[in-house]
Amino acid sequence: MMPSRLLWCCVLSIFLGMSVFGQPRPIFDPDDSVDPRQHAQPVFISRLVAGATGGFVDDYRPLHQNVGVAELANSFYRGHFQFDYKHSEVFGKDEPVNVCMCNGRPIYFPTPPSRDAIPAAPPPGRKETVQAAWYHASGGDAAQPPVMLRYRFTASWRPINTDLTSIATGDVSHLSGRERSLGLDADTYFSVHGHDVWGSLIYARNVRTGTTGDRAQNEFAYMSRFPGRALGPVLVRATLTFAGVSGRGAPGINVVNPAFEAFWHHARTDVNLHLVWSPLAMRSGAEGWQTHNQIALFVDRALFVKLFDASRR
Amino acid sequence: MLASRKIKTPLSHAASLWPTVAVLLLAACVPNMEAQVTNKVVIAMDEPCSSTAPNAIVVVLTAGNQTVRFLAKRADSSGVWSGKRPDDKTFPADRVKASLRLQGSRTGCERSFAAANDEKEDVAKFIFHCDQRGTRNVNITTDGSVRVSYARQNPGCVEEIEQATFVGGSHPHTVGDIWVPGEELSLKIAPETQGVQGRGLLVLSLDGVATNWPLFSSDPDNSALLVFDNGGRRQKGTVGTLTLKRGEVATIFIKQRFPKGWQLSGNASSIEDKRLEKAGLKTVTLQVQ
Predict the structure, then answer these.
(1) Residue of A nearest to B261 (CA)
(2) Which residue of A145, A177, A191, A247 lies most exposed, with the fewest beta carbons within 10 A?
(3) Which residues pair with B176 in a beta bridge?
(4) Mean pLDDT of B129-137
(5) Phi, psi for residue B95 in degrees, rounded to 5
(6) How many whole angstroms separate alpha carbon A239 and alpha carbon A257?
(7) Min CA distance, A220 vs chain B (Å)?
(8) Which among A230, A235, A267 has the least Cβ separation from residue B247?
(9) Domains identified in chain B, total number
(10) Nearest-CA distance from B215 to chain A in Å?
């Protein structure tokens, strides 16, 4: 008992001590959970996602513009393990940044939000993400098969390149920055008075360096997943997330984020159409509670599916 | 205070074992009471089901995880049918379950008890109750020679599931005498490539309610059949036919596995679709009549 507890403590300490942590799924990243009991052999899937998002919010940081989104997700499933590599792109406008060297130190325009305000989202661009997940069967009895819970580690990296125009001379210089993140999310399941309660616990941290507004934030969130309902051919499902995000001058729960998704699968073309509405209420020390509406419309389709021969395992 | 303590000597310890030893000796002396095994059944009804009782009835016997179907014949007009397992394998006379298929009706499951027939042979005897509920047949057609296994279960046979495997094709395979609602019927297509999981494509559910998105159900009064297409829309009729393309089969299967919806992912559907494609399936036609 003690060694395993010690091991968990060590693992947790390592993660908590790391300088960067992961972030919640972007709104356009479709669910890729696959029950390992479904496949007898290893599987590789490449999936393409494309769409548009109004009022894009990146990891609880509003971008204040509408963007195009695309993602190529490559997933490999073997037994109870899942590994992903995802390349995503957000297409939007880069805000021009001017710089004034005043009293020997740079002042940027537009001025980055203050330390007790909600940080600005990174500018549109690409992001690389790797994930490793483990599925664990929990509960179950003779009448009910065990539920399959997923525990996932996420690491992502994105370059943030900024062109700076000197207000005084008009010269253009260049900043090469990046945002790195690592995160853990764990599915949860319990029963309250006979009602199943599904959800996810998410811990994440991301750090932005080499930019005009370097910031870091820790996030701890619980996402409750409500049962879906079929409305004709459309599946409607909802989540409710409560999160505490550091680095915005408002300790405690400072994000409340319901999300509603309509999901339609077209069997003939194997295309999935998603419409997601995600209103966010966020609190910061400087601005108090603010609400943002994020709406995403996107499609996804498997480009390549390979079932490996089970006998070669 | 000094408590008086009984000091246990090796002899007194042995004495305390005497009752156990006596029971063991008695058990060894009693003739061996092995469970009776047989390959024969005797069927009786506790009341006549109709004025014209059939001379032959189909017995579906579940022994262990094997399901065997065979005919039991009536020797005279006494209302007792006798049959023998066709593969001659034996089973415990008092530990198997069976139900009857009566062409248009069926019985629930009953457990056997050991008995002897007129020839003084050991048999498994069943006494069935009449059930006047009508049954339906499910015809299954695939567009290729894909292996299909089905499992059907009714509440009386919670721990015994009737299952069989057949090779699909253009000629329909009939799963006969099913209660709708009242029985669960699920299909596993190309079961040899399917992962470890509880059940396959749910055609009929036990309660008949669309909580797990079965493909067919019925009105509560069983007056009309309800057919749920891929979109979950209902059609009503006396006969229900559903032709599903491979992609639809995959999507419906994943929807049924995750009726709460939140674990429904495109990758799960795509994996199932690919598996069915590799098995050579294009369409499945299900007809409930």
Answers:
(1) A228
(2) A191
(3) none
(4) 82
(5) -135, 20
(6) 8
(7) 21
(8) A267
(9) 2
(10) 14
Question: Which residues 182-201 in chain B show a CB within 8 A of chain A?
Answer: 193-198
Boundaries of domain holding B123: 37-128
pLDDT in tens, chain A (313 residues): 344 444 444 433 333 333 333 346 789 999 899 988 888 889 999 999 999 999 999 999 999 999 999 999 999 999 999 999 999 999 999 888 999 988 888 899 999 999 999 999 999 999 999 999 999 988 776 667 788 899 999 999 999 999 999 988 889 999 999 999 999 999 999 888 878 889 999 999 999 999 988 999 999 999 999 888 877 778 888 999 999 999 999 999 999 999 999 988 887 788 999 999 999 999 999 999 999 999 999 999 999 999 997 654 4
Q: What is the pTM of this model?
A: 0.79
Alpha helices in chain B (DSSP H): 10-16, 18-29, 246-257, 266-279
Q: Which of B111, B128, B145 is the last residue of a domain?
A: B128
Q: What is the DSSP letter of A39?
A: B
How many C-beta atoms lie closer than 10 Å to residue A285's C-beta?
Answer: 15
What's the distance, Cα to Cα, between the start and end of chain B in Å? 86
Q: Is B5 on the interface with A (CB under 8 A)?
A: no
Whether the CB of B232 is below 8 Å from some CB of chain A: the reply is: yes
- Residue B275 forms contact with A (CB below 8 Å): yes
All residues of chain A having their beta carbon less than 8 Å from the beta carbon of residue B198 are: 145
Q: Identify whether residues B96 and B224 lie together within a single domain.
A: no
Decide the pairing of beta strands B283-288 and B240-245. Answer: antiparallel
**Number of domains chain A contains:** 1
Euclidean distance between CA atoms A61 and A254, whole angstroms: 12
Chain A contact present for B261, CB below 8 A: yes
Q: Which of B270, B275, B281 to mutate to test the interface with A (most CBs of A within 10 A)?
A: B270
Chain B residues within an 8 Å CB radius of A136: none
CATH number of residue A57's parent domain: 2.40.160.40
Residues of A in contact with B250 (CB under 8 A): 267
Q: Which domain holds residue A175?
A: 2-312
B69 and B106 share a domain?
A: yes
Query: Rounded to a whole number, what is the distance in Å from the CA of A263 to chain B's nearest CA?
Result: 10
Whether residues B174 and B123 share a domain: the answer is no
The closest CB to that of B274, out of A37, A305, A310, belongs to A305
Q: Is 90 exceeded by the pLDDT of residue B225?
A: no
Q: How far apart are CA A113 and CA A120, in angstroms?
A: 7
The answer to whether A274 touches A22, Cβ cutoff 8 Å, is: no
Q: Which residue of B has its CA nearest to A303?
A: B270
Chain A hits for B270, CB-CB cut-off 8 Å, are 45, 47, 270, 302, 305
Structure tokens, A166: 């000197």
